[in-house]
Design goal:
Family: Belongs to the fructosamine kinase family.
Shape: globular
Mean pLDDT: 94
Distance between the termini: 59 Å
CATH class of the largest domain: Alpha Beta
Keywords: Kinase, Transferase
CATH architecture of the largest domain: Alpha-Beta Complex
Oligomer: single chain
Helix content: 40-55%
Protein name: Fructosamine-3-kinase
Number of strands: 12
CATH superfamily of the largest domain: Aminoglycoside phosphotransferase (APH), C-terminal lobe
Number of domains: 2
Pfam families: Fructosamin_kin
GO molecular function, one term: kinase activity
Length: about 280
C-alpha cells in the first residue's frame, strides 16, 4: 500500500487487516477489495480528477435513491489517486432484481435539474465528458455529446468526412423530432456491467453522472444487453414513449462513438448501422 492510501485509511479511522485483492472489471482503473478491522472496503485507483467526478456522481445517486430498493455504494473518502467505497456483497441475479432496477431508475429519473449538464466535467471511461450547462436538451446532445465525439473520432482517423457529416446531420436535426424535456438525473454509463447484483438487490456502480434525457440510461442497457420485460414494465409503468425506438437509436450513438474512439474500428459498423436507423426514421 502506498502512502496516500495509508493516509486515507488513517483519516477514515480504518485499520487494514489484509492486502489489496484485485476485483474483476477494472479495465481502466485498478479496483480491489481491502479487509479492515472495521469491515471490507473497495479501493479504486485512478486519475484524481476522474475519481472526484465519480465520487460526486455516486453521492448524487446515493441521495436520490435513498429509501429505494436500488442501491449505490457509499463513498467513504478520496485521497489523491485513491477512492474508498462501501463494499457490496455480490449475489446471483434474481427476477425481483429486474423489477427493483426498473422501479429504482424511474425514481432516479424523476429527480430533475433546471438545465442539461452537470456542475463539473467528468469522464465516460477514459473519454473526457464536457458537461457545461445548456437549457435545451437537443442542443446539449448536439454540442456536448455527438459533435465532440465525432470530431475526436475523425482526428484519430476512425471516421471519414462523410461519416462525420452524417453524425453532425443527425445532431443538428434533433429539433425536428425530439421534444425538449426536463433534465433527469442519470447514471450516464449504464451498461449491464455497471449494474451489480447483491444480496440485498441491484446496485449501480461506476457512474458518469449528469442531467439529461432519461432514455440515455435505457439505451445503454439495451446496447450491451437486454433487460427483461419485467424491467421495462416496472420502469415505464404504462408510460412508454411512442418514439422509444427512435430515442433508443439516438442515445446509443454517443456510446458507440465513444467505443469507436476508445477501442477502434470494430465499432465503426455499429455506428453506421445506428445512423442508418436514425436516417430511415427521418424519411
Amino acid at each position: 500500500m502506498d502512502d496516500q492510501l495509508i493516509a486515507l485509511l488513517e483519516r477514515l479511522n480504518l485499520e487494514p487487516s489484509g492486502v489489496l485483492s484485485p476485483l474483476s472489471g477494472g479495465d481502466i482503473a485498478e479496483v480491489a477489495s481491502l479487509e479492515t478491522r472495521q469491515g471490507t472496503v473497495v479501493a479504486k485507483r485512478d486519475d484524481p480528477q476522474r475519481l472526484a467526478g465519480e465520487a460526486e456522481g455516486l453521492n448524487a445517486l446515493h441521495d436520490a435513491l435513498a429509501g429505494s430498493a436500488l442501491r449505490v455504494p457509499r463513498v467513504l473518502g478520496q485521497e489523491g489517486p485513491w477512492l474508498l467505497m462501501e463494499s457490496l456483497r455480490v449475489a446471483p441475479r434474481k427476477a425481483a432484481s429486474e423489477v427493483a432496477l426498473g422501479e429504482g431508475l424511474r425514481i432516479l429519473h424523476a429527480v430533475t435539474r433546471e438545465a442539461h449538464g452537470w456542475s463539473r466535467d467528468n469522464a465516460c471511461g477514459q473519454t473526457p465528458q464536457p458537461n457545461a450547462w445548456l437549457d435545451d436538451g437537443r442542443a446539449f446532445q448536439c454540442e456536448r455529446r455527438l459533435k465532440p465525439l465525432a470530431a475526436a473520432c475523425m482526428e484519430k482517423g476512425l471516421l471519414d468526412r462523410r461519416l462525420r457529416a452524417r453524425v453532425e446531420g443527425v445532431a443538428e436535426r434533433l429539433d425536428d423530432w425530439l421534444p425538449d424535456a426536463p433534465a433527469s438525473l442519470i447514471h450516464g454509463d449504464l451498461w449491464s456491467g455497471n449494474v451489480l447484483h447483491t444480496d440485498s438487490g441491484p446496485a449501480l456502480i461506476d457512474p458518469a453522472v449528469y442531467a439529461h434525457y432519461p432514455e440515455v440510461d435505457l439505451a445503454m442497457l439495451t446496447l450491451f444487453g437486454m433487460p427483461s420485460p419485467a424491467f421495462f414494465e416496472a420502469y415505464w409503468n404504462g408510460n412508454r414513449p411512442d418514439d422509444w425506438t427512435r430515442r433508443e437509436a439516438l442515445f446509443q450513438l454517443y456510446p458507440l462513438l465513444n467505443h469507436l474512439l476508445l477501442f477502434g474500428g470494430t465499432y465503426r459498423g455499429a455506428v453506421e448501422r445506428t445512423l442508418g436507423r436514425l436516417e430511415a426514421e427521418s424519411d
